[in-house]
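chain and backbone:
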Amino acid sequence: MLTTESMDQQGYHAGTQPSAFVEAENSKFALVSACGARSTADLRIDHAMQAEWVPRNRGSSLIVLQHLVVHYTKAAPMEAIAGARELVACGSFRDSQLTYTFSDELTPDPLAEARAQFTFCGQAKPEFHSCALLVAKDDVATAVQIRGTSPGSVRSEITRMIPTVVAALNRI
């Protein structure tokens, strides 16, 4: 998980403390929520942790960074990312509050530490934008999703956060 120390260095404070994600009737384990479906890999998630981080700069166009770490039983990281990519291809994805229309995939440099990665963006209503970074390694995957009011800001921020996210994944 992203730590208070690492996120403080990046200009964030905890919105919610890291906690176990508990499945419920209307809330199931999923690396990414898209079009009301789950991937085959999502069915093999046996544990998930989640947290929200809020920018310290209240005047920022960034609103929230949501972080999810999932552990898979008998699922390869490449399968998890491929499944998420297929789900997002339906044309929409969700964060904890909004549904976004998929706009495009970003192509940051491949991460040597990761077995698979996928970065994409979308828009909800005219005023909200989101980009997500999915990274998988061994039997763990992480999803970081940033919501803001400026498409340029969320794109820049998801790219800026890549080293911090990878460092957190390497600590697991």
